[in-house]
Amino acid sequence: MFSYIDLANGGLARLQPYQAGKPIEEVQRELGLKSVIKLASNENPYGTSPKAVQAAAAAISSASFYPDSNGYYFKQALKKKYGYDPACITLGDGSNELINLIYQSFVNDKVNVVLPELSFIVYPMEATVANAEIRTVPLKNFFVDTKALLSQIDENTRMVVLANPSNPAGTAIGIQELHDFVRQVPERTLVVIDEAYNEYQTAEYEDTAKWIAECPNLMVCRTFSKAYGLAGLRIGYMVSNEEIASIVNRLRAPFNVNSAALAAAVAALDDEEFLKTVVEGNNTERERYAAFCKEVGLKMVPSSANFVLIDFKCDAFPIYDYLLHKGIIVRPVKGYGLDTMLRISIGTKEQNDALFACLREYLDAKA
Q: What is the distance in angstroms between the CA of the first residue and the CA of the last residue of the chain?
């Protein structure tokens, strides 16, 4: 029998469809639960800025018109806040689409891509579609090893891609180490830094996009899906040198970001008080996770994001299943080879209290 997979481009036949976490409604229906806490997708448990909600609602009144393809007001807001040249900004419906566009623009079957181990699944997936060679560099205690990344770069390395903080580990590279790394990458090799979780970092931070002036091969991707609470509207942006932005924009769909998302993002950038509340709440609760894990004898990977990676030192799937039947959705990471670990998004105090209680209950029963 004829198989249409034989018609698929590049390495697409070697991939499996992305398995997203189950929505709350589906879990409630399947398990007969009245309420569910979702701690699986690194979403913002504090919701969305009221100013952003109001701006998005107002934009819906003009939904019969196409959105502004160039995102003029959004780019002006970024220029006002960070000083970026609008010509150096590329719009994306989240940073995921931007990663996709970057790969389509620059990666092919004659080059290699260097990635840290445990990279976000999209990075190797896009390289596989392009039939590019993938060079994976082991982590050091779950931290990205920048020296090892540099050692894998050769004349055929088109791109180095890393997330900072990383996903699913949650660790972050120190700002000086990251800067030194970017400066040492040859100009012919592109450096893509995915900063989806950047706002949650507590360590000293510099605006990495400002390095583009001295490192023109650098591309920085950001999203409004996490700390800004706009995951459902899908908006992100990339900062690069103007030539790279021009190249990537040739592939970008003309109306890839909708009007409500653009309006909400402009308002969200202006609502610094909401962002401060989100980050402070997350980081306070992140410390509680560390304290809880220490108390019950679990190992938590040091996190600089809005999630934690916890090692249960046994097959973690029964724990995931137990929590699921208690109405708490977390994320197994068996696909990364981390059979004994779960990635858990940091919720509100009340949500985290419920999770801690269920884990104590499970661990006590197994003791």
A: 54
